[in-house]
Amino acid sequence: MEAPRLAHTMSSPTSPCEEVIKNLSLEAIQLCDRDGNKSQDSGIAEMEELPVPHNIKISNITCDSFKICWDMDAKSKDRITHYFIDLNKKENKNSNKFKHKDVPTKLVAKAVPLPMTVRGHWFLSPRTEYTVAVQTASKQVDGDYVVSEWSEIIEFCTADYSKVHLTQLLEKAEVIAGRMLKLSVFYRNQHKEYFDYTREHHGNAMQPSVKDNSGSHGSPISGKLEGVFFSCNTEFNTGKPPQDSPYGRYRFEIAAEKLFNPNTNLYFGDFYCMYTAYHYVILVIAPVGSPGDEFCKQRLPQLNIKDNKFLTCDEEDGVLVYHHAQDVILEVIYTDPVDLSLGTVAEITGHQLMSLSTANAKKDPSCKTCNISVGR
Q: Fewer CB atoms near the end CB (10 Å): N or C, the chain?
């Protein structure tokens, strides 16, 4: 069987020293593997001496792109017409010895001045460890390739979503947020043992903990931001918090103004779903100037507390009034400790719906409502 032809080339470089690897056809290309083995039908000629890339450097890493450059000996350098880049998720690097024809890991670029930018959300995901190796190649008149040996294998990790990516998520979330309903309290459900432990070991103060890995894989707050988790959605008919909860039968309620007021900043953190019709929006409330505020200011889009589509705090007749979006489930992270004496703890009368828990929940990567065109 004839191997696929390498028909797609790179787009125009964004600068004289940079080439963007973009809109590539990621077919399974039967090149030689990193051990130098070639298929008989690969369309690659016997190996001749071409410069082997070495001293590979990766820089300017984002959630779906990176720059790559390397050193090469001058010998036969003018014969190089293409670069072959073998990119693999780190956990799959041992599979290179037995490549499957349908594994799209080889990228093909015309030989251009280095560094070049590799960009593509369909093969790069945020917060993911990759291995990369490079070959130089010379395309012959008959369409076959002469190739060098593979370079050394190096490892790198892609970055989190930037503010630009999060703003795209924010704009998508605004579309479905719905009308605003009044609220008066924030609430946090846990087991009785949690509150007992807080009183006994933490001086009555609920301590911030590191956010889990639920939501978007590229979220910059997952596994990094510390805070106390709260809910604030109310039932449409009663205007009060629902009596059911996935997190425990005991609920701490606190007046909204004690957590959210003009002395706090509000940030958008994430937008996701879990293969369900309803969607979640993560918001962060941080006291102005606190460590949590500084963390968020560098990484998250800030919202106007009086005017946004999710959670507002405004003053009417000298009284703070609060509203939340009706059509998304809000998950609120408060970045400082919260003393239990500021609210009340009581047992709920409803059910503990464990199936609704979002603890370490994975985002649906196929949902068109809450995904953007970068790695999920």
A: N
SS3 state of residue 93: helix
DSSP of 225-265, one letter per residue? -EEEEEE----TTTSS--S-BSS-SEEEEEEGGGTSSTTEE
**Which of the residue ranges 107-116, 177-186, 294-303, 323-332 would you say has the lowest mean pLDDT?**
107-116
3-state SS class at 276: coil
CA separation for the pair 88, 157 (Å, rounded): 11
pLDDT digits (tens, 9 = 90+) for 222-261: 999 999 999 999 988 788 888 888 888 899 999 999 999 9
Tell me, rounded to whole angstroms, the distance of Cα 276 from its chain centroid: 19
Radius of gyration of the chain (CA): 26
> Helices in 286-341 by DSSP H: which ranges?
291-299
Residues constituting the chain: 376
Q: Which two tokens stand for residue 23?
A: 């809109």
Q: 27 pLDDT exceeds 90?
A: no
Beta bridge partners of 206: 338
Q: Return the amino acid letter for 99.
A: K
**262: preceding bond cis by omega (within 30 degrees):** no
Both tokens assigned to 64: 């779906």
With contact defined as beta carbons under 8 Å apart, do 88 and 140 qualify? no
| Tokens describing residue 305 | 């507390």
Q: Which residues pair with 45 in a beta bridge?
A: none
**Which range, of 43-47, 85-89, 354-358, 365-369, averages the lowest pLDDT?**
43-47
Q: Is the pLDDT of residue 165 over 70?
A: yes
Whether residue 332 is predicted with pLDDT greater than 90 in this model: the reply is: yes
> Going by C-beta distance under 8 Å and a sequence separation of 6 or more, which residues neighbour residue 30?
3, 4, 39, 41, 42, 43, 99, 101
- Residue 266, phi then psi, degrees to nearest 5: -120, 135
CA distance 155 to 334: 36
Q: Which domains does the chain have, with CATH numbers?
A: 54-158 (2.60.40.10), 163-347 (no CATH)
Asked whether residue 101 carries a pLDDT value surpassing 50, the answer given is no
